Amino acid sequence: MLTPRQHAPELAVDTLAGTQFRLSEEAPERMTLVCFYRGLHCPICATYLKELERLTPAFAERGVSTIAISSDTEERARAMAEKIGAAKLRVGFGLSLADARQWGLYVSASRGKTSIGIEEPALFSEPGLFLIRPDNTVYYLSVQSMPFVRPNFAEMVQALDFVIKNDYPARGEHVGPIAEQ
Fold this sequence. Notes:
Blueprint: E1 12-15, E2 20-22, E3 31-36, H1 43-61, E4 64-69, H2 74-84, E5 90-93, H3 97-102, E6 107-109, E7 123-125, E8 128-132, E9 138-143, H4 153-166
Parallel strand pairs: 3-4, 4-5
Antiparallel strand pairs: 1-2, 1-5, 3-8, 6-7, 8-9
């Protein structure tokens, strides 16, 4: 189980900008926001990523770089980027499902076409959102088994203001025994 303050798994994917994103080579002032999304077939992902695109400058003002990543092919990732009007948000593609599992993401099997008429891949990862510190340790994580009820990006921007002002530590790191009270 991936926990806060633990070293994040290696992550390397190609991006639509023609470069490779390597988490270990990121050098943000404060953190990297990694948003794993289901893929082009998911209308909820499109709405969610539009909001991340809109707020990417606000994250950047706080020293946080952003990237959205899926196991989609380049063609499908490019179609999603066009759908959301990605101009500031980096979009990565080709996440292996083995890497998705390393990150604790759930994997789902296709149920055919979605409500927007796009075929789901045979297997794909469910959503996850991570804030990773420059030393590659996990600061925050949220992993979901469903496409619904995701962390709110606007609230996260506000939370970052508090985190920065108060040098707030990562929480949820205890993995040792728990004594019953």
